[in-house]
Amino acid sequence: MATFLYKMGRLAFRRRHFVALIWVALLTLAGVGAASAPAAGNTSFSIPGTEAQKAFDLLEQRFPGMSADGATARVVFKAPSGEKMTAAANKATVEKTVRELKDGSEVSFVADPYTGHAVSKDGTIAYASVKYEVSGMQLKDSTREALKAAAQDARNAGLTVEVGGDALTATPETGSSEVIGIAIAAVVLVITFGSLLAAGFPLLTALIGVGIGVSTITALAGALDLGSTTSTLASMIGLAVGIDYALFIVSRYRAELAEGREREEAVGRAVGTAGSAVVFAGLTVVIALVGLSVVNIPMLTKMGIAAAGTVAIAVLIALTMIPALLGYAGRKVKPAGEKSKLLGGGRGPRKADRPNMGTRWASFVVRRPVAVLLLGVVGLGAAAVPAASLQLGLPDDGSQPTSTTQRRAYDLLSEGFGPGFNGPLLVVVDAKDSTHPKAAFTKVRDEIKGLKDVVTVAPAAPDKAGDTATITVVPGSKPSSTTTEDLVHAIRDKGAGISSATDAKLYVTGSTAMNIDVSQKLNDALVPYLVLVVGLAFLLLIVVFRSVLVPLKAALGFLLSVMAALGAVVAVFQWGWLSGLVGVEETGPVMSMMPIFMVGVVFGLAMDYEVFLVTRMREAFVHGEKPGQAVVTGFRHGARVVTAAAIIMIAVFSGFIGSSESMVKMIGFGLAVAVFFDAFIVRMAIVPAVLALLGKRAWWLPRWLDRALPNVDVEGEGLRTARDRENTGPDEDRELAHV
Q1: In which band, very low, low, confident or very high, does the pLDDT at 736 lie, cut at 50, 70 and 90?
Q2: pTM of structure
Q3: For residues 510 and 55, what is the distance between their CA atoms, to the nearest angstrom?
C-alpha cells in the first residue's frame, strides 16, 4: 500500500497540470449537471415491510385517485377576538378562500370547513383541508405561491390565517453559522501550519471535493429521489473529512521536508505514509455510511451512500490534488517548525530537543495511566447517563420554530380541536375476502370507539367497489406522546380478533403510525448494524495495526464516546438543558434515526483519529522504540495535527447547528459533541493510558493470524528499507528489516 501510494504521490507531483485539469473538469461537469437539474425538495419517505407502508400501498391500489402520498395542507382560520367563524362576514371570507384553493392545477380536492364539520366547538377556529395530486417534493413553485396568496387574502380580510402540512415545506437553511465554522477551520489551519498558503490547500481541496459531491447529488436528485437533507449531510461530512485528510498529508509533507528530503521525495513519502492512513480511515467511514442500508429505509440508505461517495472523493482528492498543489507551491511551503515571513518572521524550526505540548501530555499519561483512564471513563459515563431516558420519534410541525406558519397552524389546531388532532390515525379495512364488508366496517369502528384515548372515530369511507374503507381516528394525546403510541398498538391488536370474526384485515397508517413504525424498525436494526459495521472495521483495523487488542480498544472507546454524545443530545433536545444556546425552541423526542446515524458516522470519524494517531505509535514501535516511548513519539508527531483536525471538524459540524431543519440541527450538534468526546477524551487520554498499561501486549498478534493477514504496510516500512538503504549500514539495515 505505502509503495503504491508513494509512486502515486510522486506522479501527481510531476504531472500536476494534468491532475489539476482532471479535478477542475470534474467540478465543472458536476456544476453544469447541478445547474441544469431541478431544485431538490424533500425526498419521498417509505419504510418497506411495515404495516403503515402496507396500508399506503393498499390505498394506492383501491383508491387510485386518493394520492395517498400526495402533499397536504391545512389552512387554519381564527376569528377576531369576540367573533365566531360562523359569522356571515367570516364565513364569506373562508368560502372565498376555498374557491381560490380549488383553482390550483395540482389540487386533488379541498374540504369546506362548514360542510366537513371542521369548525371548533367554541366556533372560533376552522380549517380547510387541501389535498394535492403530487408529493411535496414535486409541487410546483406556482402551486405553493397560490396557497400562500389565498392565505394572505384571508388575512387581509381580518382573519388570523396559518398554513400547516407538508405543502409549504422549504429547503433547509444553515445560515451564517456554517460560514463561521469554515472561518474557524481556516484560522486553525493557519495557526497549525504558520503559513497562509499551506493552510489554504486543505480548505481548497475540501471545497472542491464537496462541490463535486454535492453538485452530483443535486444533478441526480430528480432521478434518484434525493432530498435536500441528503446534500446537506453529504456536505457536512465531506467538508469535515476533506479538510482533515488533506491536513494530515500536508503536515506529513512538512515533516519530511524538515528531515532534509527533496520535495518530490517528501511528497511521495507523505502520501505513502499519511496517505495510507487516509485510505484506511476513509474506508472505515465509507463502511459505516454504506452500512446504513441494512436498516432498509430507502431515505437513510440514500443519505448514507451519498455521504459515502463524498468521503471517497475527499480521499481521492487528498491523495492526488494535494501533491499537485504542493508541486505548484514549491519552496513557499516551509518545513515543519518554520513560519512564513508574513506570520512568523521567517524564523527557523524549533530545536529538536525541546518537547512540544503533545510530548509533555503523553509523558504525563504514561506516568499516570490508571488515574487518566479512570477519570476519562467516569467522565464519559456521567455524560452518557441521560441516554438512559432516550425517547425516539420523528419531527412534525410541532417541533418547528414558533416563527413558522406551520408551527402556528399546529398550535391553532391543538387549541381548537385538541392535541391529538394534529396526528390523526388512518385505519384501512381490507374486506375484500369478507362476505359482509359493511358489517366488518361497522365492527371495526365500534371496537375502536371503546379504546382508551380515542376522541373521535369518523364513519367508514368505502371505495367504489365497497370492499375497502378508511376510518379516521383522532387520539386525545399529541402525536409524539407514548399514549398515542399505545393507542396505535391497541388498534392493531384488535386486528387479529376482527380478522377471525369477519375475514377482514385491519391496518393503521398515517404520519403518526409511520413515525412509530420507523422508530421500531430503527431500534430493531441497531444491533445488527453495530455488529456489521464494527465487525468489518474491527477486521480492517487488525490488518492496519497487526494487533488484536488495539482494534478492540478502539471499538470500546467508540462506544463510550457515542453513548456520551447521545446523552448530550437527550439533555439538550429532549430535556431542554442549554437548549437556547443551540436554538431549540421545542423539546421533544429525539429523531428516530439519530442513534443509528450517529453510530455510523461517529464510528467512522472516531476511527480516523485512531488510525492517524496510533499508526504513528506503531511506526515508532516497529522501528525499535519501547512501548511507552512509542506512545510519546506518536503524540510528538501527531497530537498537534489531530487536535487541529478535531477542532476543525467540531467547527464544521457546529456550523450546521444554525440550520432551520431540526434534523440537520440535531445531527450537527450530536456529531460536534461526539468528535469532542472522542478526539480529546478517548483518543487523547484513554487510548494512550490503555496502551501504556498494556505495553508490548498491545501489539500482540497470533502467529497464524500474522501469516494469514496481508501486509498493507501502513507505516511505510517498505519505503524505509527500499529508499534509505544507501544511508544505513548493512547491520542497521538487517536490524530494521528484522523489526
Answers
A1: very low
A2: 0.77
A3: 9
